[in-house]
Design brief:
By secondary structure, the chain is α+β, with helices and mostly antiparallel strands. The protein folds into 3 domains: about 120 residues, Acyl-CoA dehydrogenase/oxidase, N-terminal domain (Butyryl-Coa Dehydrogenase, subunit A, domain 1, Orthogonal Bundle); about 110 residues, Butyryl-CoA Dehydrogenase, subunit A, domain 2 (Beta Barrel), CATH 2.40.110; about 160 residues, Up-down Bundle (Butyryl-CoA Dehydrogenase, subunit A, domain 3), CATH 1.20.140.10. It is built from 12 helices and 11 strands. Strands 1, 4, 5, 6 and 9 form a 5-stranded mixed sheet that branches. Strand 4 and strand 5 form a beta hairpin. Helix 4 packs antiparallel against helix 5, helix 5 runs antiparallel to helix 6 and helix 8 runs parallel beside helix 10. The longest helix is centred in the middle third of the chain and has 37 residues. The protein binds flavin-adenine dinucleotide (FAD). The site of flavin-adenine dinucleotide (FAD) has 22 residues, from strand 1, strand 3, helix 11 and helix 12.
């Protein structure tokens, strides 16, 4: 009989250096982001291309992008846990999570590029992203469905030193940013270079715009999202789009494995953003409980309210534990390069964090709105913005929730028993 053992673990404590880092990031975010996030969300709701370029530049100057990337590429040479701390603090200051999502994509995916990409591509792209002049995210989703990554249809044909890409990507974050930022940018993407299934896919750094010049064969659309408006979502068609072979990431036909490692890294910081937004929501609740009186008592004296709060608080602490357990493990694998751990060890810890963090945040936002009563249903109260933004991660951004459950069930029960 198999034994379900407690996974390899690390304790949730922070070093003095990490505490100082958190303090400085929080101080920056409270000064430059917290007073502006509602305005950013409102402005970009009216016009998605109203991108907060000035705040992005300040965040870059504070070193909030490419945190675990090497200093030789303009990164911070930090740990993955430091990146996780930063994303939690950014989302605490902007619970719509738009700016945290900008920062986390521009941390997880440049780091994945550094792990597998060519020296030339890293030298060219990462410094621009770190400086806030370029965006670099992930473009895997296609119109036929995002969850079935192995079934994607975009094709890449090799012709001499270039690959010619044809296909379509949908629901991609950053389509506006690559057009608006000074240098441009693009995505870690996948295209089919071989046969059917996951073994026929290769990964590329696809630059839609570089040095301020749009690339030929890239035809974008911008969507009107319901939340996290400070970051654009869109789609694009690729028509005979040329990618130089220096932008091939890793080996040909091994792209699926590289992108899965990238997803594991990105999902940790996704979950970190949602625990930051949840912290903001918990504080909104406490503030309200201490002032709102009904029937001559604070509403938190009703156990129907305070017990639910206690349950939500417990879920938040559990989410936080999942997030930092995963980031510590990522440090062991990718920063310390400890041979006793391997990339696949991250699957379950990351899926737990990505599954639990966003769901806790969205459930909490709904509860806080109910505790606030009718006022929460007006646009004057900002809470709904902290509900709709994190909801993107329950809907499916960086992987649908059921896919997280599938990963957990597959790895714990065994792949052969899920067929
Ligand atoms: C705001 C936002 C931003 C996004 N940004 C990006 C981005 O930057 N880059 C990118 O590549 N993609 C991005 N996405 C797309 C995201 O990755 C997809 O939404 C996700 O992969 C799910 O794909 P789908 O939406 O096509 O849903 P589908 O894959 O069609 O799934 C539909 C439903 O079926 C369920 N389902 C699917 N397969 C299974 C299964 N095997 N078992 C049980 N249930 C299953 C899912 O849980 C889901 O509820 C973004 C999405 C959003 C909402």
């Amino acid at each position: 009989m198999s034994v379900i053992d407690f996974p390899k673990n690390t304790v949730l404590t922070f070093s003095e250096e990490e505490e100082l880092f958190r303090e400085s990031v929080r101080e920056f975010c409270q000064r430059h982001i917290a007073p502006n996030w509602v305005e950013v969300d409102k402005r970009s709701e009216q016009n998605p291309m109203d991108i907060p370029v000035d705040i992005i530049k300040k965040m870059a100057d504070q070193g909030l992008f490419c945190i675990p990337c090497s200093e030789e590429y303009g990164g911070q040479g930090g740990s993955y846990t430091m990146a996780t701390i930063a994303m939690e603090e950014i989302a605490y200051a902007d619970p719509s999570v738009a700016l945290a999502v900008y920062a986390l994509l521009n941390t997880g995916w440049p780091f994945a590029l550094e792990l597998f990409g060519t020296e030339e591509a890293c030298q060219e792209i990462i410094p621009e992203v770190a400086a806030g002049r370029a965006f670099f995210g992930i473009a895997s989703t296609e119109p036929q469905g995002g969850s079935d990554v192995a079934g994607l249809k975009t094709r890449a044909e090799k012709k001499g030193d270039v690959y010619i890409l044809n296909g379509e990507k949908t629901f991609i974050s950053g389509v506006g940013e690559v057009q608006k930022l000074e240098w441009g940018g693009g995505w870690f993407t996948l295209a089919r270079t071989g046969g059917e299934g996951h073994k026929g896919l290769s990964a590329f750094a696809l630059l839609a715009r570089k040095n301020g010049e749009l690339s030929d064969g890239w035809d974008p659309t911008i969507y009107e999202d319901i939340g996290r408006h400070g970051l654009t979502t869109g789609g694009f068609r690729l028509t005979d789009f040329e990618v130089d072979s220096k932008y091939l990431i890793g080996e040909e036909n091994k792209g699926f494995y590289h992108v899965m490692e990238g997803f594991n890294l990105a999902r940790i910081v996704v979950a970190a953003a949602t625990i930051g937004a949840s912290r903001w929501l918990l504080e909104q609740a406490v503030e309200w409980f201490r002032t709102r009186k009904l029937f001559g008592r604070n509403i938190s004296s009703f156990q129907g309210v305070s017990f639910k709060f206690a349950d939500m608080y417990a879920r938040w602490e559990a989410s936080r534990y999942f997030v930092y357990r995963a980031s510590r493990l990522a440090d062991k694998i990718y920063i310390e390069k400890d041979p006793s751990y391997k990339p696949l060890d991250l699957n379950v810890p990351v899926a737990l964090a990505k599954n639990y963090g966003p769901e806790t945040c969205v459930d909490l936002a709904e509860e806080v709105m109910k505790w606030y009563g009718a006022y929460a249903y007006t646009k004057e109260a900002p809470i709904f913005r902290a509900w709709l933004g994190p909801f993107s991660y329950v809907i499916g951004a960086e992987g649908a929730q059921n896919i997280m459950r599938l990963i957990i069930a597959r790895d714990i029960i065994g792949r052969d028993y899920l067929k």
